[in-house]
Write a structure and sequence with these properties.
There is one protein chain. It contains 23 helices and 8 strands. By secondary structure, it is mainly alpha-helical. The protein folds into 2 domains: 41-376, no CATH class; 382-495, no CATH class. The strands form 2 sheets. Strands 5-4-3-6-8-7 form a 6-stranded mixed sheet. Strands 1-2 form a two-stranded antiparallel ribbon. The radius of gyration is 25 Å and the shape is globular. It starts with a helix and ends in a 23-residue tail after the last strand.
Length: 518
């Protein structure tokens, strides 16, 4: 008996080392059990759902769009014909359904600015409803998923094709046991984005493996995939917005960004800034914690592990050799993990462990913190910059944007065109087909180009999110507009003071386009 007790009792040093963590884990489990009991009451549960719906819709309709959201809306609304829209999308690399939806909503309401929040609101109803009312998680876990930074803000407040893809993926898993309806949403996934096409391959494989792959479902999925690939075939003159970096830079950058999945706290220079990883001391811990969570939640399920780790590896390879994926794209790995656990529970498998629930709690705290932050800080301040340009009486002047994306949104709100730095053309949305901007990115060449343009055309104005230098009186700062949560500030500059105002009228960089309805 003494020998048995000695075997069961940890050594004194080991007890001191792990005792605190054991007590902490026990307290956390007790907290979760108490919270589970609270939400077991129907009155509390449905009040929580109502409160969440109010928060979600407030976030959506108060959200200030940023570059990618404006780009999609402008292409959808300003393309004169469907043929022009399809051509513009070949420079985007995105399939058309999201753009068709925005175009239809704009025409239906007569107010294009309503299209983005309306699309997000409809999809949020479907996705959040499925999570809260149809998923097999505990009620508390459902609420934490719904209020997580991933769902509440990144996927369902920011209105992009990502929103459509996330909703389709959730509905595909929700309808998994309800006949063949899940095939409809599996087939829609490739029409949302390339990464969702990859997710659709995994879901289609699982359906086939279960013997639930009717010819109609497989055929619909294959047609959708081929249609999506055809719609995004790149033109010969396309260039990526961001070029891949070397392995020495790209791998650490991917690791830092991927750590945000473990701790969705986006932070920079001692302040919350979107699309940035957590503070440096926490990135390594967050990365390791999330990867360990993936190991724990897919153990003994080889197919789940293969799907999840293949997707993670794909994001790394794609970032290194094709296009550096942003944090919002990498967060789809978190969605894949949640959906795999969802499917396991649907099959009667083991409940999500304490580590998974702790991760959901952290993500929920970050999501609700972002919701509070959104009440005091706009996501983007392009509307303020546009209003400032109007106040100064400069909306009808010759403007240059640097980088090219700086003028997005302002151009739409003010009905303006921004000339590309280094190019002899102007735009209100971006076509990724230019080459000369690579030349002007170096500081010396930029100011040489500004001086040449001032001599040729006269005084003009520059919109930038960079701090430009006043070299020999060439550039003068007029006004600045502070950044919102997305971190993009706006600075208005005058170039070539003392010369007559430029009357340059450049042709469009982006081909046939209507003006955005103001």
């Amino acid at each position: 008996m003494a020998a048995q007790l000695a075997f069961e009792r940890p050594a004194a040093g080991q007890d001191r080392r792990w005792g605190f963590l054991s007590r902490l884990a026990l307290r956390f489990e007790q907290f979760l059990q108490a919270a589970d009991g609270v939400f077991a009451t129907d009155t509390v549960w449905y009040c929580a759902i109502g409160l969440l719906a109010a928060v979600q819709f407030t976030l959506i309709f108060a959200h200030k769009p940023w570059l990618d959201e404006w780009q999609a809306l402008q292409i959808a609304v300003q393309s004169p014909t469907i043929d022009d829209l399809m051509l513009n999308l070949r420079y985007e690399g995105h399939p058309p359904p999201w753009y068709f939806a925005l175009r239809w909503l704009s025409a239906l309401t007569g107010k294009p600015l309503l299209a983005l929040p309306l699309a997000a609101a409809v999809l949020a109803c479907a996705a959040q409803g499925a999570v809260l009312l149809a998923s097999p998680f505990r009620r508390l876990d459902r609420l934490m998923i719904a209020t997580s930074q991933f769902m509440l803000f990144e996927f369902l407040t920011i209105s992009r094709s990502l929103t459509l893809g996330v909703t389709c993926a959730i509905l595909a898993v929700t309808l998994w046991r309800r006949g063949a309806w899940s095939w409809l949403f599996i087939a829609l996934l490739p029409l949302c984005d390339f990464l969702f096409g990859v997710i659709s391959v995994g879901l289609a494989f699982l359906r086939w493996r279960e013997g639930k792959a009717p010819p109609l479902g497989i055929g619909l999925w294959l047609v959708a995939g081929v249609t999506s690939a055809w719609s995004v075939r790149p033109p010969a003159d396309i260039i990526p917005a961001f070029a891949p970096k070397s392995l020495l830079v790209g791998i650490p950058q991917w690791m830092a960004n991927f750590s945000t999945l473990g701790l969705p706290l986006q932070w920079k220079d001692f302040a919350p800034v979107w699309n940035n990883p957590p503070p440096l001391p926490l990135t390594g811990f967050a990365l390791c914690a999330f990867l360990m969570l993936c190991v724990v939640e897919t153990r003994a399920r080889r197919i789940d592990a293969l799907m999840l780790w293949s997707f993670i590896a794909l994001t790394l390879g794609f970032s290194l050799f094709v296009y550096p994926l942003a944090i919002r794209h990498l967060m789809l790995a978190a969605l894949v993990l949640i959906l795999l656990v969802w499917k396991r529970l649907d099959e009667g498998g083991r409940q999500a462990g304490t580590a998974f629930r702790a991760w959901l709690l952290i993500a929920a705290v970050c999501g609700l913190s972002t919701a509070l932050l959104s009440a005091v800080m706009p996501f983007n301040t392009a509307d303020r910059a546009a209003a400032e340009i109007r106040r100064l009486g400069l909306a009808d002047k010759n403007w240059v944007s640097f980088p090219d994306s700086s003028g997005q949104g302002i151009a739409a709100r003010n009905g303006m065109l921004f000339e590309r730095a280094g190019d002899h053309c102007a735009q209100d949305f971006i076509r990724w087909n230019h080459t000369s901007t690579k030349w002007v990115w170096t500081g010396k060449n930029l100011y040489v180009d500004f001086a040449r343009k001032a001599r040729r055309d006269g005084q003009f104005y520059v919109l930038s999110d960079f701090a430009l230098e006043n070299r020999g009186g060439l550039v003068r700062l007029i006004e600045t507009v502070p950044a919102g949560y997305d971190g993009q500030a706006f600075a208005l500059y005058g170039v070539g003071a003392g010369r007559p105002d430029s009357s340059a009228n450049r042709p469009r960089c982006n081909g046939p386009a209507l003006r955005f309805p103001i």
